[in-house]
Design goal:
Length: about 140
Amino acid sequence: MDNEEKMIFQIMKYVLFGGLALLLVSMAGCPVYNVWEQEMRGKAELSRAEQNRKIRVQEAQAKLDAAKLTAQAEVEEARGAAEANKVMAESLGGAELYLKWKYINMLSERKDGDRTVIYVPTEAQIPVTEAGRVTK
């Protein structure tokens, strides 16, 4: 063997031992990397779960706020209608006259042109029918 071949042989030995050493170090680092990776994956899942919980809480709060505002609007609308009915009833001389006026007004506003009114005879606000008569 001449000098050049010995030198190539030495280089190959160093490369082989270096590669073997690198392989051993990387194999020794695998368990540590796996533990680190699992820890990072756990932190990511925890963060995702916390974010999803915050989103659900905010959606529920928005729904509650909307329901409260809708209820307040309906109460105000009912108060306005009650006040308007009260003013109209007082100006017409009572609730009964107001209801009669409202009925007449409703008949005049019908668009189909049919303003036919059918009166049913009553006794004490109960319709009188012939079905209850007994013949002897």
